[in-house]
Specification:
single chain, alpha+beta, 3 helices, 36 strands
Length: 474
């Protein structure tokens, strides 16, 4: 919605007021006109002039109201997202090129995960949801990353599982004794569990009396008759008989008859419980895709049902891109998400290197912030014999880099700053010769090595301490 042009509004109001004044000045001065007639004429002119202004004010009020509604909704969504993040679980200590070790999380870390009991055949059984992460890696130098840190999430890096205790014999599950629980926040019912294959009953359950009707997805469904062990239903006038515990598709709608309550008593009404929806009954096997074009596939064994990630988020692609700050990968219904919080911001120091000749000797001039004991420098010179100040007094073979934890070390004859090295001719480095910025594992940013080597000039940015990132489970 475009912002209102307040300048034009002010101009309009001024113009209207001027019009009113001019109108009063040129009002007819007919001989014999009474004061009342002149006053009436003036009132009419004022009313005519103010009418469009009132209309515009009304439009403005409507627009402001709509803007406030959008603003409030946006703020509410942001607050809810922030509350979810704060209620989640923070995992820090992620460093560049260090793979995330296998870790399993439960409700002890993420309170939204389930840990409790489920009922089956009159007994209660323990069940627990767990989320497993492995091999998530923070990278900055893949194709087109240009020295910017991204969290890469390879195939199988995220797995979710709802694990039932071994005492629960899933072979006993059938249409008469189903297992009901919540999966990704939705209620599901299992009517068959055969090793690594499960039959789900999904949809919404409705209890109807004979003759009752409901509307589902714009289709009218009528429980027309209730028989002893079956029902007769109509879907937009199309009828079919369905046996108890069976599922049929009637005029495009799946209907499962869960229970029939038949009575012959005149003062009572026969009833039935129906589950209605799209694909009310679905069978899935271990390794099946969760749904069409899903990033997840089913993981099922004799006492576990869950999902595993089957797409990789490792490159800068439109559909499955490596994660930048604020990106997340979520289970269905956003039941649980892995959120990348980006790199923890650090202060940094910038340094430039260029060749120079002083007193017929070649040096590398380095500009930046340096310290050696109580002495501060903003420029030093280095060669194979060591490090010199601006007066070419020898400092030594090592000098501290400003407020960082690192030093510039010349003890090997090359310029070494932690995991960045360059020779004294500024044409050989340990970060290659590519034309994209490079970020070392420590977090030192080297600007375009190819151009730097060609120009014999380097610019690097050194963080105060080793770059670290974090993720949140929300």
């Amino acid at each position: 919605m475009e912002d209102w042009n307040w300048t034009m509004t002010i101009v309009m109001i001024v113009a209207i007021l001027v019009g009113i004044f001019v109108g009063l000045l040129v009002a007819p001065k007919q001989t014999g006109s009474t004061f009342e007639e002149v006053e009436a004429y003036a009132d009419k002119q004022v009313a005519n002039a103010i009418s469009p202004l009132n209309t515009k004010i009304s439009e403005l009020e409507t627009e402001i109201t709509e803007l406030l509604v959008v603003k409030n909704e946006t703020e509410k969504e942001e607050e809810e997202e922030q509350e979810k993040i704060e209620a989640g679980y923070l995992i820090d200590g992620l460093f560049l090129e260090e793979a995330f070790n296998i870790e399993t999380f439960s409700d002890r870390e993420l309170v939204t995960l389930f840990d409790g009991k489920v009922s089956f055949d009159g007994e209660d059984y323990d069940a627990e949801e767990v989320l497993t992460l492995e091999n998530l890696v923070l990278k900055a130098n893949e194709n087109d990353f240009e020295g910017i840190p991204y969290l890469t999430v390879p195939t199988y890096a995220i797995e979710f599982a709802l694990v039932f205790e071994d005492d629960l014999d899933t072979d006993l599950i059938d249409d008469d004794e189903t297992l009901t629980f919540k999966l990704f926040g939705d209620k599901v019912e299992i009517s068959d569990w055969d090793l690594n294959e499960i039959t789900f009953t999904r949809g919404t359950e409705h209890s109807l009396g004979e003759g009752d009707s409901i509307t589902v997805d714009e289709k009218v469904i009528v429980l027309d008759m209730v028989l002893e062990d079956a029902v007769y239903v109509l879907v937009d006038g199309v009828g079919e008989k369905i046996e108890e515990s069976d599922t049929e598709t009637v005029n495009g709608v799946d209907i499962k008859v869960n229970e029939v309550l038949y009575t012959t008593k005149e003062n009572q009404v026969s009833k039935a419980t129906l589950t209605i929806g799209e694909e009310v009954e679905i069978t899935v096997s271990d390794g099946d895709e969760y749904e069409e074009d899903s990033i997840w596939e089913w993981v099922i064994d004799t006492n576990t049902v869950g999902l595993v990630l089957i797409e990789e988020f490792t490159e800068l692609e439109e559909d499955f891109s490596a994660l930048t700050n604020g990106d997340k990968v979520c289970l269905p219904n956003e039941y649980a998400c892995v959120l990348f919080n980006g790199v923890i911001e650090e202060d940094s120091e910038e340094y430039t290197f260029e060749l120079d000749t002083k007193n017929t000797l070649e040096y590398v001039e380095v500009n930046g912030n340096f310290q050696n004991g109580i002495e501060d420098y903003d420029k030093i010179y280095v060669n194979a014999t060591g490090i010199y100040d601006e007066d070419f007094d020898l400092i030594g073979t090592e000098v501290e880099l400003g407020d960082t934890d690192l030093v510039l070390d010349m003890s090997t004859g090359d310029i070494v700053i932690e995991d960045f090295e360059v020779n004294l001719d500024l044409d050989v480095t340990n970060v290659g010769t590519g034309d994209e910025n490079v970020l070392t594992d420590y977090g030192i940013l080297i600007d375009n090595p190819e151009d730097s080597i060609d120009d014999e000039e380097f610019t690097i940015v050194v963080p105060e301490s080793k770059l670290e990132s974090s993720i949140s489970l929300i």
